[in-house]
Design brief:
two-stranded antiparallel ribbon, 8 helices, mainly alpha
């Protein structure tokens, strides 16, 4: 019985992936948010631990890649000029801002092997967040109003959903509460 338990325990240890492998795999697959989440979680426990040095490098790489990817996506969506893209633009800016807020309490991070501090280029996204939020709110408002003009039940349900989303991101926007109760 003891040998069976010992064998089972050994198999579990061998088959489980380390957090470094998980975050490296997420990074290689392009899932930068997951890689950042794993690395930040480990570094929050002990950022000076020798075993966490790889997490610092993964965090650096994932942050650079997600920032670059999101900025390119935002530029593409802006060039496209479709008002329906305002939601995604707002979400991308929110994600970039959220990631910076996750990383900033950990700084400074020191990479022992390279004898340097980890490099993170932070940007103030507050103006971009406000502008994209306002654009998205205007889009939702106009979209919901035009749905209500159709007069059918499904359009009113969709308008209600749009006004609810608008209330969530921008409480008190124009006459949203009155239109929400009407929908």
């Amino acid at each position: 019985m003891k040998q069976a338990l010992l064998l089972l325990f050994g198999i579990l240890i061998i088959s489980s992936c380390s957090s470094v492998k998980k975050s490296q795999k997420a990074l290689n697959q392009g899932n930068y948010n997951e890689a950042i989440g794993i690395a930040v979680g480990k570094l929050q426990k002990d950022k000076t631990k020798r075993g966490n040095q790889e997490h610092i490098l993964i965090l650096e790489d994932a942050f650079r890649k997600i920032t670059e990817t999101n900025k390119k996506r935002i530029a593409f969506l802006r060039k496209e000029g479709n008002p329906a893209n305002f939601r995604e633009i707002y979400q991308l800016y929110s994600n970039l801002d959220r990631i910076q807020k996750m990383i900033s309490p950990l700084l400074p991070l020191y990479v022992n092997d390279a004898e340097r501090h980890a490099k993170f280029r932070f940007t103030d996204y507050s103006d971009h967040l406000i502008n994209s939020k306002n654009e998205y709110a205007d889009y939702l408002y106009e979209e919901a109003r035009s749905m209500m003009e159709n007069g059918d039940k499904l359009s009113y349900r969709n308008a209600f959903a749009a006004f609810t989303e608008l209330q969530r991101i921008y409480p008190g926007f124009r006459d949203t509460e009155e239109l929400l109760s009407e929908a």
